[in-house]
Specification:
Layout: E1 9-12, H1 45-52, E2 60-63, H2 76-83, E3 89-94, H3 101-111, E4 115-121, H4 129-132, H5 138-150, E5 155-159, H6 169-178, E6 183-187, E7 194-197, E8 204-207, E9 225-229, E10 238-241, E11 247-248, H7 262-268, H8 275-281
Parallel strand pairs: 1-2, 1-10, 2-3, 3-4, 4-5, 5-6, 6-9
Antiparallel strand pairs: 7-8, 10-11
Helix pairs in contact: 1-2, 3-5
Length: about 280
Amino acid sequence: MLLAQDIKWFHVEASSKCNAWCPACPRNNQGFGLIDGLVEQDLTPAMFEQALVNFPALECVQLCGNLGDPIASTHITELVSIAKNYVKKIQIHTNGSLRNSDWWQEFAGCLEDIDHDVWFGIDGLRGVHEIYRQGTDFDKIMQNATAFISAGGHATWQFIPYQHNEHQIRDCLKLSQQMKFKKFKIAKLYRKQIVARHYKTGVEFDLLPADSVKSLTNIDRPNTTVEFHNCMHLSIPSVYMSANGTFSRCCYFNKQDRFTDSSALLSKVTDLNNQLCVKNCG
């Protein structure tokens, strides 16, 4: 049984709203149209803080979307302010194309007094990035990231490799170094072939998995940390909270085994690293 005092990492869905239409995202139908029953909403600050007080040993809050982008939340800065009273680190995952450069400069100021890491999902250069990150604007992402970094923000470039973009990984790494990203993260190659759909027309196209990007581990990368990464739920005692305030073992289980309070969830969890998690995410 997992105890509240065991939890070190709190994965939080700040919002189920998003501007992007990524074909592998569970919020849409392979990139075209929202799934039936999706309610676009923001996690309330009150629900967030009520949950935080139940985990006395928390070290990090991760604001990372399963059905939305945390920057889409109308409460994002308030959530950050609340989290700073409970944890030592805040990690945020975003597609980076929401808001504008002025907002991102101010947001860096909100994070300056806490250890933080904002992951920008950038899967290629202009014209290639948007093949997977449908509905986003590459140039706007570059402007927002530049504003955030120049104002003192700590940023990570996250790259999901596919066959259509793996040839640009080295160029993206080089650009990340020029822009002074702290890290360059490559998602583990567990992605399968996806029959995707164009977000405006619904026309189908194939997203093929990358062949291999392991050669990157040997390239010269001064001033930038290059890492392959897995889901943290596989290695850190953690729980997930959705934008509607319910809890589950991780975002993969968002549609099943939901609990209205964390204590009910923890009483049912005996092993976060169960075989299903490892099969799908490990």
